[in-house]
Design goal:
This protein has 407 residues and is of the alpha+beta class. It has 15 helices and eleven strands. InterPro entries: Kinase-like_dom_sf (IPR011009).
């Protein structure tokens, strides 16, 4: 059978993007990815305030320059609307009330980056009825995950709700009005931040307060690896979006994230219908083509996250040779701790794609050592990615081989 590489018209959008980007990189010579990243890092505390930086921070090479279009996420990044030094900080009842009231406006004007199927889901939903049902005993939150994230469709029967309605596609979080996590999630859903495609915070459809607690209704998400990541291209896309999201949060001075646990990440797969192969087989596998449709990953665990005060050390680019003082301060820096945790996650996941393990070893080593900021890691990732051979992207992950053998 002819290889799809011999028929460009058969390539899906993500494959086209990967091949074109790699081909472009292969035309460059005498390029050292690690040297390129370390010596081309942005100035400290720049936060992307200059116009040139906004263009250089695009997620992908310009599709017009590459002669391709139609690829999915991650998207080219919009120019930053504020630097990290201007991160929002809410600490009073009046500011929280303002955020809560703004959520009704946000839900009526959903983000352009939100998937089509999740738009305008709240037009016919009686949220007060849902909250009354959620408030009754037994509480659906008690026995669920530690983040108190509940899928309404899965608990409809227990809550005595009707079996049909667009509300079944929503998830709900219940947070104390005074919680720092609530402030962060509401702030990250303000329109100017919500529109940024690097923002990894889940999209809030509606936020309603009752009896000192706030119910956050979110678009439906799935576990990041259900259905599984099948090949190198899938893992590359996941790693890239995680690093973009971490860079964004650190720009907003948000740190203290739980990044080592895969359960902290979820994915929006609503851009295309789910299909199944051999549906009559009890061991059939739910299938979603991540190469043909946009896939967006979100960070859902902000339980211990905090906005770091301006007086604290800010994640600037790493110097070529860290000083002894910097080395001693690394363990106490929450930004660098996040990068270390992220590196630990990547190192664990790379064991499932051995073809990538040696190629990204320099990345995970630098992240875990604590000498890189999130943006340093993102830049090195992009440099290493551009150096990959085009044939590697279709290499199957070990978990997908086990899955195929068992199906």
């Amino acid at each position: 059978m002819a290889s799809p590489h011999s028929h460009p018209d058969l390539l899906d959008p993500l494959q086209t993007r990967l091949l074109a980007t790699t081909a472009l990189a292969n035309t460059e010579t005498d390029s050292d990815p690690l040297r390129e990243v370390i010596y081309d890092s942005p100035d400290s505390d720049s936060g992307g305030e200059d116009d040139d930086g906004a263009g250089s921070d695009s997620t992908l090479d310009d599709p017009e320059e590459l002669g391709i279009s139609g690829f999915g996420h991650p998207l080219q990044r919009m120019p930053r609307v504020m630097s990290a030094d201007h991160g929002l900080d809410y600490d009073s009842d009046s500011e929280l009330n303002l955020l809560l009231s703004s959520m009704s406006r946000v839900s009526s004007n959903p983000s352009r980056s939100q998937s089509v199927s999740s738009l305008n889901t709240d037009d016919t939903i009686d949220f007060e009825e849902l909250i009354d049902a959620l408030s009754r005993e037994p509480s659906p939150f008690v026995d669920n995950d530690p983040y108190e994230l509940v899928s309404l469709g899965s608990v409809a029967g227990d809550m005595g709700l009707r079996t049909e309605g667009s509300w079944r596609s929503l998830m709900v979080r219940r947070l104390e009005r005074s919680s720092q996590e609530l402030f962060l999630l509401l702030g990250l859903n303000m329109p100017e931040l919500r529109e940024d495609p690097w923002n990894p915070a889940p999209h809030i459809v509606r936020a309603i307060e009752k009896d000192g607690q706030v119910y956050l209704f979110l678009q439906r998400l799935s576990n990041y690896n259900k259905p599984p990541l099948l090949n190198v291209a899938h893992y590359i896309d996941f790693f890239r979006q995680v690093l973009e999201g971490l860079s964004f949060l650190h720009e907003q001075r948000i740190a203290g994230l739980n990044l080592t646990e895969p359960s902290s990440y979820m994915v929006d797969l609503s851009s295309a219908p789910h299909k199944s192969n051999s549906s009559s087989d009890p061991q059939h596998v739910v299938y979603f083509d991540r190469l043909s449709y946009p896939v967006r990953y979100y960070l859902v665990d902000f339980t211990d996250a905090k906005r770091i005060p301006l007086g604290s050390s800010f994640p600037s680019s790493s110097p070529a040779t860290p000083s002894e003082t910097l080395q001693q301060s690394i363990p106490a820096c929450p930004f660098r701790r996040d990068v270390q945790d992220c590196g630990t996650l990547f190192e664990k996941l790379l064991s499932d794609v051995p073809a990538l393990l040696p190629k990204f070893k320099s990345l995970t080593r630098a992240m875990i050592h604590g000498s890189f900021t999130a943006d340093d890691a993102r830049r090195l990732f992009e440099a290493l990615f551009r150096a990959l051979d085009a044939n590697i992207f279709e290499t199957r992950a070990l978990s997908s081989s086990v899955l195929t053998n068992n199906s």
